[in-house]
Amino acid sequence: MLTERYPEFYPNYLMERYNKDEYFSRIEPIDYSRFLVISLGAGDAKNVDANKVEYMYTAEEASKWNRLKWLVDFSKNTNPLIDFFMEGSADMIDWNVEVDFKNTDKLEKYRYNYIRIQAHSLSGNTASLDNIDQSNLNDLKEIGKELLGKKMLRMNLLAGKSEEIVADKEVTNMTALDWFAQVLVAQRHRVQDAMNVANSN
């Protein structure tokens, strides 16, 4: 299937490969075990916790909106249409990256190559992206510290929400980041050793 990133703009097309068509060659899947990705979210006020989703809007409610209500909801001081686009784009990116890393043949060994850290319980000032008051920055700092000690979450592709990794109930965000750092340090040492050998020759 094509057009994964923006399905709201472009329709999906099924591309078939015919054995006798010389213009279509076999494309080998990418080995994502060679990649290391840390994704730090700006926070999400939608979810109170990983297993409970609170929706700001409902389908029944939206079905009664006029054009203005889609742009501005004065009762909630929100912009529904913008919220839908922003949330939809973020969710699609999370979903696609998760799919990419789950497709590796070495999932058990490399399941920490993609780390997604996101606060799912922001409210009030902490949920605002443009509030730079010192008190709010201090609150965000404390939320970040607490987030390090929380269990690592991965997106459940069937449910479309973040959940704890069943096989690693004790793995926290800090544990995953420590592993990530160790891999980077080891790689740096390998590169430095290779450069030293090359320079000595």
UniProtKB/TrEMBL annotation:
<protein>
    <submittedName>
        <fullName>Patatin-like protein</fullName>
    </submittedName>
</protein>
<dbReference type="GO" id="GO:0004620">
    <property type="term" value="F:phospholipase activity"/>
</dbReference>
<dbReference type="InterPro" id="IPR016035">
    <property type="entry name" value="Acyl_Trfase/lysoPLipase"/>
</dbReference>
<dbReference type="GO" id="GO:0047372">
    <property type="term" value="F:monoacylglycerol lipase activity"/>
</dbReference>
